[in-house]
Fold this protein.
Amino acid sequence: MKKIIIVEDDPIVGHIYQTRLEKEGYEVETCTDGQKGFYRIHEFHPDAVLLDLMLPKMNGVDILKKIRAQSQFQRLPVIVFTNAYVPNMIQEAFGAGATQVFNKATLTPRQVIDALQAIIQGGYAPAPDNATTPTPHAPTPAPSPSISSPETLGESSFHSSAAPARHHAPQTTGVPARAPVMYTPPPAAHAAGPAATVPSLNSDDAEFQAEMNSAFIQAKPEILAGLRKALQDFSKAQDDQARLPHLLELYRKVHALTSSAGIAGYGYIAQMAAALEVLLKELYEKPKNVNASTMRTVAHSVDFIGEMFKNDEVNPADPAPAEILVVDDEILSRRAISYALEKATLKAVSVEDPNVALKLATESRYDLIFLDVQMPNMDGFELCTRIRALPLNKLTPIIFVTSLTDFKSRAKSTLSGGNDLIAKPFMFIELSVKALTYVLRSRLAPKQRAA
């Protein structure tokens, strides 16, 4: 009997994979933190390891590096679960010796089983749509800005005097090239209700998927109550030191939601949770970034997850690409916003002239618009007011990205028709989360009205 170790800090998700793999005839053990997982690999001598990267006590990359440094584990198959909103971790995982890397927000137990069978039998598994694989010849570009000079940015934030620098990932070897993905929804099973399954699933998989869907629906009230309680405790804390335990608790709950929603087939919820998870992780690691703007973004995201919980449709139809307009007279600022949107696989048209932006908004409907405030010829408040008078974009969400965060400016942003405001300097992932919230809300609104 082949032996598998699962290193996953959420015990519910770990139990789900353990149960499904045991049904396939594997002997399975689960460890809920990185340190336990590292020691248990030495004791259990598994035939393969399923490894989450974002773990307490010892992260997955460190585990990989340590076991690959030992001759007995150099060929041990290790399948990694990661968050696709942290592309540098994907590259680090391959650099540390991962056999295959999956986006946990879209990963199904069947994909894990197929990958394990192929790898244990002596080869790499075919890479499905939500897997990433190393590049054998040419390095894959990865957005990983440095912080070495005032002209470059750190991964987490943007200052208006800086622009993101791109670096190439280290060259690796492995299966044929496949670019890392930020998010790929699971295969669609449209309008079939909460027990809908992917047509290619066998009867056991279909039954298991239906059970996961049903369990997730039943758990929604408890999950949401836990998120809101953790958010409330975080929001009420008076200082950074008091906030950190509540922030960690909120992160852990969102981290668990990413995997459980993905397993159950709720792609939109998993996508939103995956992005929010990364924002919370960065806030925990850099408490100085906890401010009024980031706290509003976190609160709005949790509220939106609650809205999504009202819809029991599994695997909603893949949306058409979002149309996003970015208006800022500073080229570096436009590039930073576009970079943050790319982290969420969202593309934007960016312009520097407010008059050109107004013309575009007259001719085309957008799903989301970002505006600077201080621009020549026409400031952002006036442009927002004029966009609101256009039939095509009367209801389009508009977010101001500005260094003006005083009460008067915030009031003017609302009075001119703006929906939200992000303060410069901003965290890239904060803007990604904010954009996802508005884009996905616009996609789900017609479904909810129809329901």
Summary: The chain has 14 helices and 15 strands. The two ends are 48 Å apart (CA to CA). Residues 23 and 330 are 57 Å apart (CA to CA).
